[in-house]
Design a protein that fits this description.
alpha/beta; about 350 residues; five-stranded mixed beta sheet; 13 strands; single chain
Length: about 350
């Protein structure tokens, strides 16, 4: 048993995440999707996992070795008072379960205003990542060319207004308030320009469809695309363009249903000891997967955030990472690194 599998086994995650033959630990039970009517023990947490590599790896020889899989294992080990059940889901089902007040939680729910009506988020982010980028086929450009800002960014709002591109999206995925609003307005004004695809296969299916030229551009995270390309055949090379509407960094929170139960779970997570080291380890693992130029950008922006006086730890409080505050904190780092991110690879 390798070191990673041993670590997961020690915290009760190896059986459900690694797919081993022996029964799962009583503390953590992998399950098929749980019907809404099925009784769930009060002390059970259903963790909803999204099929987005490298955050969760839900099948294959590396099953259970995603960045959030490993962090979830460390978190579950510190919460033995709960049973931890793993369930592969989708962004739409996560929203449905949380709106219904079911005892579900996720490490993959982006904090946006519409979700705060039914989601209880952690007091502070457990992780910060680079923002979404525009993903295009290598060599593609709209008829009028790319109209880049001085730092190399393109504006999604301006691109949509030009009418020169068709955007393919996963309709329930959120990319941040400014980008979400731009897509929402375009869906209303020019519905033929924003093509929403079902979530079967998630990003993988979307990228294969982009390769077949069903649409021109999509949004996502460069690290996801590169990890998929490493492990799946048939995906062509893509180019990534930074978006003017994206903040320098995206904070990620633990999230549960907005119920008394969810409040209790989130408060327990907020108080867990020893998680600073796990968050540092998560950041190091994330950095190691980034392409070299993205890694330099990430380090520079994290250093800029850490320099903000109100940031008392590796991860700044949520308020520090509003788009305006984060832009101010990371202005110098962003200006010097934006062009590196836009450089074709």
């Amino acid at each position: 048993m390798n070191a990673l599998a041993l670590a997961l086994w020690a915290c009760g995650l190896a059986a459900p995440l690694q797919g081993q033959a022996q029964p799962a630990s009583p503390a953590l039970q992998a399950s098929a999707p749980t019907p809404a009517s099925a009784p769930v023990p009060p002390a059970a947490i259903r963790w909803l996992l999204l099929d987005f590599v490298p955050y969760h790896v839900i099948d294959g020889p590396n099953k259970g070795t995603g960045l959030r899989d490993i962090y979830l294992g460390a978190l579950a080990k510190r919460m033995p008072e709960y049973q931890h059940q793993l369930e592969v889901s989708s962004t739409e089902r996560i929203a449905q379960f949380m709106q219904a007040g079911q005892p579900v939680c996720s490490l993959s729910t982006l904090k946006v205003p519409e979700r705060e009506a039914y989601t209880r988020f952690g007091a502070e982010p457990y992780f910060m990542q680079l923002p979404p980028v525009l993903i295009v086929r290598r060599g593609y450009a709209p008829p009028g060319g790319w109209k880049k800002r001085p730092g190399g960014e393109v504006s999604l709002v301006e691109l949509l207004r030009s009418g020169e591109v068709r955007v393919g999206t996963l309709p329930k995925r959120r990319y941040g308030q400014a980008l979400d609003e731009a897509l929402k307005q375009a869906r209303t004004a020019r519905p033929e320009q924003v093509l929403d695809f079902g979530e079967y296969g998630l990003l993988s299916g979307l990228l294969h469809t982009l390769s077949r030229k069903r649409f021109d551009v999509t949004l996502g995270y460069a690290i996801e695309v590169e990890q998929l390309r490493k492990h799946q055949g048939g995906l062509e090379d893509f180019q990534y363009l930074p978006l003017a509407e994206s903040p320098p960094l995206i904070p990620t929170y633990a999230a549960c249903s907005l119920t008394p139960w969810g409040k209790q779970v989130i408060q327990a997570i907020d108080r867990l000891p020893g998680m600073d080291a796990e968050r540092s380890r998560l950041r190091e693992q994330y950095e190691s997967m980034l392409p070299p130029e993205e890694r330099l950008v990430y380090r520079a922006r994290m250093a800029a955030v850490a320099a903000v006086p109100s940031s008392a730890s590796t991860l700044a409080p949520a308020g520090v990472l509003t788009p305006a505050a984060a832009t101010a904190a990371a202005a110098n780092a962003s200006a010097s690194s934006s062009e590196a991110r836009a450089t074709p690879r």
